Amino acid sequence: MVILTRELCTLDPLETARLAIAGGADAIQLREKKMSTTERLNWGRELHALCQSKGVALIINDDLDCALALGATGAHVGQDDMHPEDVRKVARLSGRDDFVIGLSTHDLEQLDEAAEFGVDYAGFGPVFASPTKNYTQGLGPEYLAAALAIARVPVIAIGGIAPENAWMIAKQAGMAVSSAICGSQNPEETIRRFLDSRVS
Asked: Exposure pattern of 16-26 as b/e (b: 16+ CB <10 Å)?
């Protein structure tokens, strides 16, 4: 999953997404904390059209209204955002029984709660220090392994993941990456390096 934030992109953001998908990314998360819903919608329409044409999931970070208006695959929320159970209720009222919901988790208790909330996946981390989100220290790959041992929902590792350390992420987990792709001059090649690290 590529977490796409326009101001972090070295290349044109839509081109970054296109190249990441060409390299093998299977989900794009639109994360624009500073935008209004209207601004997210305008940007999201372009991104949604690209993702639809390539058969790639589009997840909207912390803006359920935008996600539903776009017809996006789903939404991702944090611990202090709209509760996942409320997200599910609103999505179903909108006729979206297939709506995918992700939740950020940062310890074993939160990960266990995620299953009770009925989310489709849990982001877990930060595994490594992450300047993007001001995490000066990561939980470490050993803690991720402990989380995977008790997880009752699919887990996507988050936080400071780069091609150089991706081999440390247990293969049972997915990976969400932001600055390593957004800041890349060649997102397609960078994604391939991530994927190669999972099969070596």
From this structure: bbbbbbebebe
The 10 Å CB-count burial string (b at 16+, else e) for 113-147 is bbeebebbbbbbbbbbebebeebeebbebeebeeb
Report field, pTM of the whole predicted structure over 0.90? yes
Q: What CATH number has the domain spanning 2-199?
A: 3.20.20.70
Query: Where are any strands of DSSP class E within the chain?
Result: 2-4, 27-30, 57-61, 74-77, 100-105, 121-124, 155-157, 174-175
pLDDT, one tens digit per residue, over 90-148 is 999 999 999 999 999 999 999 999 999 999 999 999 999 987 666 678 999 999 999 99
Residue 55 token pair: 């058969």
